[in-house]
Amino acid sequence: MDLWLIGIGTGNPEHVTLEAQRALREAALILVPRKGPDKSDLAGLRHRIIAEAGATAPVQEFDYPTRDPNLPYKHRVRAWHDEIALCWQDAIAKADPHGPVALLVWGDPSLYDSTLRIATRLEPAPKLRVLPGITALHALTAAHGITFNTLAGAVTVTTGRRLRDHGWPYGAETVAVMLDGDCGFRSLDRTDLMIWWGAYLGMEEQILDHGPVVEAGPRIVEARARARADHGWIMDTYVLRPMGLD
Ligand SMILES: C[S@@+](CC[C@H](N)C(=O)[O-])C[C@H]1O[C@@H](n2cnc3c(N)ncnc32)[C@H](O)[C@@H]1O
Protein backbone atom coordinates (compact mmCIF):
# COMPACT_ATOMS: atom_id res chain seq x y z
CA MET A 1 0.00 0.00 0.00
CA ASP A 2 1.13 3.55 -0.71
CA LEU A 3 0.70 5.81 2.29
CA TRP A 4 1.10 9.53 1.80
CA LEU A 5 1.64 11.70 4.87
CA ILE A 6 0.70 15.20 3.85
CA GLY A 7 1.83 18.18 5.94
CA ILE A 8 -1.01 20.73 5.97
CA GLY A 9 0.50 23.60 7.95
CA THR A 10 -0.87 24.94 11.18
CA GLY A 11 -4.43 26.04 10.63
CA ASN A 12 -4.43 28.36 7.64
CA PRO A 13 -5.78 26.50 4.59
CA GLU A 14 -3.42 28.62 2.49
CA HIS A 15 -0.45 26.88 4.13
CA VAL A 16 -1.22 23.82 2.02
CA THR A 17 1.31 23.51 -0.80
CA LEU A 18 0.46 22.88 -4.45
CA GLU A 19 2.27 19.53 -4.07
CA ALA A 20 -0.04 18.61 -1.17
CA GLN A 21 -3.14 19.68 -3.12
CA ARG A 22 -2.12 17.54 -6.06
CA ALA A 23 -1.49 14.54 -3.78
CA LEU A 24 -4.97 14.97 -2.27
CA ARG A 25 -6.47 14.94 -5.77
CA GLU A 26 -4.49 11.81 -6.68
CA ALA A 27 -5.25 9.86 -3.49
CA ALA A 28 -7.71 6.95 -3.57
CA LEU A 29 -8.67 7.35 0.10
CA ILE A 30 -8.23 10.17 2.60
CA LEU A 31 -8.16 9.40 6.32
CA VAL A 32 -9.27 12.10 8.76
CA PRO A 33 -8.99 11.71 12.54
CA ARG A 34 -11.88 12.62 14.84
CA LYS A 35 -10.36 13.84 18.09
CA GLY A 36 -13.47 14.79 20.06
CA PRO A 37 -15.94 17.65 20.20
CA ASP A 38 -13.54 20.29 21.59
CA LYS A 39 -11.33 19.92 18.53
CA SER A 40 -14.14 19.73 16.01
CA ASP A 41 -13.09 22.92 14.25
CA LEU A 42 -9.76 21.29 13.36
CA ALA A 43 -11.58 18.37 11.70
CA GLY A 44 -13.62 21.03 9.88
CA LEU A 45 -10.40 22.62 8.67
CA ARG A 46 -9.19 19.28 7.30
CA HIS A 47 -12.44 18.85 5.38
CA ARG A 48 -12.09 22.37 4.01
CA ILE A 49 -8.52 21.66 2.86
CA ILE A 50 -9.69 18.49 1.11
CA ALA A 51 -12.55 20.33 -0.61
CA GLU A 52 -10.35 23.27 -1.66
CA ALA A 53 -7.81 20.87 -3.19
CA GLY A 54 -10.59 19.52 -5.42
CA ALA A 55 -10.10 15.99 -4.05
CA THR A 56 -12.79 13.51 -4.99
CA ALA A 57 -11.54 10.42 -3.09
CA PRO A 58 -13.72 9.03 -0.31
CA VAL A 59 -12.92 10.52 3.10
CA GLN A 60 -12.90 8.00 5.93
CA GLU A 61 -13.03 9.37 9.47
CA PHE A 62 -11.59 7.39 12.37
CA ASP A 63 -11.75 7.98 16.11
CA TYR A 64 -8.60 8.39 18.14
CA PRO A 65 -8.34 5.89 21.01
CA THR A 66 -7.90 7.30 24.52
CA ARG A 67 -4.56 6.94 26.30
CA ASP A 68 -4.35 4.65 29.30
CA PRO A 69 -3.60 6.99 32.24
CA ASN A 70 -2.31 4.08 34.34
CA LEU A 71 0.77 3.47 32.19
CA PRO A 72 4.04 5.42 32.56
CA TYR A 73 4.33 8.23 29.96
CA LYS A 74 6.43 6.54 27.26
CA HIS A 75 4.64 3.16 27.59
CA ARG A 76 1.30 4.96 27.44
CA VAL A 77 2.25 6.76 24.23
CA ARG A 78 3.63 3.59 22.60
CA ALA A 79 0.49 1.61 23.48
CA TRP A 80 -1.58 4.48 22.10
CA HIS A 81 0.40 4.44 18.83
CA ASP A 82 -0.23 0.69 18.50
CA GLU A 83 -3.95 1.34 18.87
CA ILE A 84 -3.95 4.18 16.37
CA ALA A 85 -2.24 1.91 13.83
CA LEU A 86 -5.08 -0.58 14.31
CA CYS A 87 -7.63 2.21 13.81
CA TRP A 88 -5.97 3.15 10.52
CA GLN A 89 -5.88 -0.47 9.45
CA ASP A 90 -9.62 -0.87 10.18
CA ALA A 91 -10.50 2.34 8.37
CA ILE A 92 -8.43 1.34 5.32
CA ALA A 93 -9.86 -2.19 5.26
CA LYS A 94 -13.41 -0.77 5.40
CA ALA A 95 -12.78 1.49 2.42
CA ASP A 96 -10.72 -1.04 0.42
CA PRO A 97 -8.99 1.64 -1.72
CA HIS A 98 -7.34 0.89 -5.05
CA GLY A 99 -4.56 3.45 -4.87
CA PRO A 100 -2.67 5.67 -2.43
CA VAL A 101 -4.04 6.42 1.02
CA ALA A 102 -3.52 9.99 2.22
CA LEU A 103 -3.33 11.21 5.79
CA LEU A 104 -3.36 14.90 6.64
CA VAL A 105 -0.70 15.73 9.21
CA TRP A 106 -0.74 18.96 11.23
CA GLY A 107 2.24 21.19 10.43
CA ASP A 108 5.08 19.04 9.15
CA PRO A 109 5.18 15.26 9.70
CA SER A 110 8.77 15.37 11.02
CA LEU A 111 8.23 17.74 13.95
CA TYR A 112 6.76 16.47 17.23
CA ASP A 113 4.36 14.26 15.36
CA SER A 114 4.18 10.49 15.56
CA THR A 115 2.41 9.73 12.30
CA LEU A 116 5.68 8.40 10.83
CA ARG A 117 6.25 6.22 13.92
CA ILE A 118 2.70 4.88 13.74
CA ALA A 119 3.09 4.15 10.03
CA THR A 120 5.99 1.79 10.79
CA ARG A 121 3.57 -0.33 12.84
CA LEU A 122 1.37 -1.15 9.84
CA GLU A 123 1.54 -4.63 8.38
CA PRO A 124 2.48 -5.12 5.66
CA ALA A 125 4.75 -2.08 5.77
CA PRO A 126 3.38 0.66 3.50
CA LYS A 127 5.40 2.50 0.89
CA LEU A 128 5.70 5.92 2.48
CA ARG A 129 5.76 9.31 0.85
CA VAL A 130 6.12 12.40 3.05
CA LEU A 131 5.03 15.83 1.85
CA PRO A 132 6.43 18.69 3.96
CA GLY A 133 4.29 21.33 5.60
CA ILE A 134 4.72 24.67 7.34
CA THR A 135 5.52 24.04 11.00
CA ALA A 136 4.19 25.95 13.99
CA LEU A 137 7.72 27.29 14.43
CA HIS A 138 7.78 28.70 10.91
CA ALA A 139 4.33 30.20 11.46
CA LEU A 140 5.58 31.75 14.72
CA THR A 141 8.79 33.28 13.39
CA ALA A 142 6.96 34.60 10.31
CA ALA A 143 4.15 36.11 12.40
CA HIS A 144 6.72 37.97 14.54
CA GLY A 145 9.02 38.73 11.62
CA ILE A 146 12.07 37.29 13.41
CA THR A 147 14.85 34.93 12.42
CA PHE A 148 14.73 31.48 13.99
CA ASN A 149 18.46 31.43 14.72
CA THR A 150 20.91 34.19 15.58
CA LEU A 151 23.71 34.89 13.11
CA ALA A 152 25.34 31.47 12.54
CA GLY A 153 23.78 30.38 15.85
CA ALA A 154 22.06 27.19 16.99
CA VAL A 155 18.46 26.52 17.98
CA THR A 156 17.29 23.99 20.53
CA VAL A 157 13.75 22.76 19.95
CA THR A 158 12.19 21.26 23.06
CA THR A 159 8.96 20.73 24.99
CA GLY A 160 7.37 22.50 27.93
CA ARG A 161 7.78 19.35 30.00
CA ARG A 162 11.54 19.21 29.37
CA LEU A 163 11.92 22.90 30.13
CA ARG A 164 10.15 22.45 33.46
CA ASP A 165 12.01 19.23 34.34
CA HIS A 166 15.53 20.14 33.20
CA GLY A 167 15.63 23.95 33.06
CA TRP A 168 17.39 25.97 30.35
CA PRO A 169 19.09 23.49 27.97
CA TYR A 170 22.84 23.45 28.60
CA GLY A 171 24.72 25.86 26.33
CA ALA A 172 21.58 26.80 24.39
CA GLU A 173 21.27 30.12 22.61
CA THR A 174 17.77 30.16 21.10
CA VAL A 175 15.18 27.77 22.55
CA ALA A 176 11.92 26.97 20.76
CA VAL A 177 9.25 25.37 22.94
CA MET A 178 6.31 23.28 21.81
CA LEU A 179 3.73 21.10 23.55
CA ASP A 180 3.66 23.30 26.62
CA GLY A 181 0.36 23.16 28.47
CA ASP A 182 1.64 25.11 31.45
CA CYS A 183 3.76 28.11 30.40
CA GLY A 184 7.05 26.35 31.23
CA PHE A 185 9.00 29.61 30.78
CA ARG A 186 7.78 30.51 34.29
CA SER A 187 10.01 27.81 35.76
CA LEU A 188 13.22 29.41 34.43
CA ASP A 189 15.34 31.28 36.90
CA ARG A 190 16.52 33.96 34.45
CA THR A 191 15.69 37.62 34.00
CA ASP A 192 17.58 38.18 30.74
CA LEU A 193 15.27 36.35 28.32
CA MET A 194 13.08 37.63 25.50
CA ILE A 195 10.00 35.65 24.45
CA TRP A 196 8.12 35.57 21.16
CA TRP A 197 4.84 33.73 21.74
CA GLY A 198 1.96 32.76 19.48
CA ALA A 199 -1.29 30.85 19.87
CA TYR A 200 -3.63 29.58 17.11
CA LEU A 201 -0.94 30.55 14.60
CA GLY A 202 -2.27 30.87 11.07
CA MET A 203 -5.89 30.85 12.26
CA GLU A 204 -8.41 33.66 12.62
CA GLU A 205 -8.02 33.44 16.40
CA GLN A 206 -4.22 34.01 16.22
CA ILE A 207 -2.78 35.82 19.26
CA LEU A 208 0.80 37.13 19.47
CA ASP A 209 2.86 38.70 22.22
CA HIS A 210 6.54 39.33 22.73
CA GLY A 211 8.95 41.14 25.00
CA PRO A 212 11.18 40.48 27.98
CA VAL A 213 9.85 37.37 29.78
CA VAL A 214 9.61 39.33 33.03
CA GLU A 215 7.11 41.70 31.38
CA ALA A 216 5.42 39.64 28.66
CA GLY A 217 5.33 36.40 30.70
CA PRO A 218 2.46 37.39 33.04
CA ARG A 219 0.47 38.84 30.10
CA ILE A 220 0.93 35.58 28.17
CA VAL A 221 -0.15 33.45 31.15
CA GLU A 222 -3.34 35.49 31.42
CA ALA A 223 -4.06 35.65 27.68
CA ARG A 224 -3.47 31.92 27.36
CA ALA A 225 -5.88 31.05 30.19
CA ARG A 226 -8.56 33.38 28.79
CA ALA A 227 -8.22 32.04 25.23
CA ARG A 228 -8.28 28.46 26.42
CA ALA A 229 -11.47 29.12 28.38
CA ASP A 230 -13.09 30.93 25.43
CA HIS A 231 -12.26 28.31 22.79
CA GLY A 232 -12.11 25.16 24.92
CA TRP A 233 -8.65 24.33 23.52
CA ILE A 234 -5.39 26.06 22.71
CA MET A 235 -2.21 25.41 20.76
CA ASP A 236 0.70 27.72 21.43
CA THR A 237 4.41 27.83 20.96
CA TYR A 238 7.24 30.25 21.67
CA VAL A 239 10.87 31.15 21.15
CA LEU A 240 13.16 32.26 24.00
CA ARG A 241 16.52 33.97 23.56
CA PRO A 242 18.76 36.10 25.80
CA MET A 243 18.31 39.82 25.17
CA GLY A 244 20.75 41.54 22.90
CA LEU A 245 21.48 38.56 20.64
CA ASP A 246 20.56 38.80 16.98
C1 LIG B 1 1.87 17.51 18.30
S1 LIG B 1 2.77 18.99 17.97
C2 LIG B 1 2.61 19.07 16.24
C3 LIG B 1 3.60 20.01 15.60
C4 LIG B 1 3.44 20.05 14.08
N1 LIG B 1 3.80 18.79 13.48
C5 LIG B 1 4.25 21.17 13.45
O1 LIG B 1 4.96 20.88 12.46
O2 LIG B 1 4.16 22.30 13.91
C6 LIG B 1 1.61 20.16 18.56
C7 LIG B 1 2.29 21.42 19.09
O3 LIG B 1 2.66 22.24 18.00
C8 LIG B 1 2.43 23.60 18.32
N2 LIG B 1 1.41 24.10 17.40
C9 LIG B 1 0.84 23.42 16.39
N3 LIG B 1 -0.01 24.20 15.71
C10 LIG B 1 0.02 25.42 16.30
C11 LIG B 1 -0.64 26.65 16.05
N4 LIG B 1 -1.51 26.79 15.05
N5 LIG B 1 -0.35 27.69 16.86
C12 LIG B 1 0.53 27.57 17.87
N6 LIG B 1 1.17 26.43 18.15
C13 LIG B 1 0.92 25.36 17.38
C14 LIG B 1 1.99 23.66 19.78
O4 LIG B 1 3.15 23.82 20.57
C15 LIG B 1 1.40 22.29 19.96
O5 LIG B 1 1.44 21.90 21.32
Word description of this protein:
The protein has seven helices and ten strands. With 246 residues, the chain is of the alpha/beta class. The chain has a five-stranded parallel sheet, sandwiched between helices. A five-stranded mixed sheet has the order 6-7-10-8-9, sandwiched between helices. Helix 1 packs across helix 2. The longest helix has 23 residues. The termini are far apart. The relative contact order is 0.15. The model has no long low-confidence stretch (mean pLDDT 94).
Form type = globular
Work out the strand percent.
15-25%
Helix content: 25-40%
* Element-by-element helix/strand order: EHEHEHEHEHEHEEEHE
* Distinct ligands, ions and cofactors found in the model: S-adenosylmethionine
Largest sheet: 5 strands, parallel
Keywords:
five-stranded mixed β-sheet, 7 helices, globular, five-stranded parallel β-sheet
Can I get a quick summary?
With 246 residues, the chain is α/β, with parallel strands linked by helices. It is built from seven helices and ten strands.
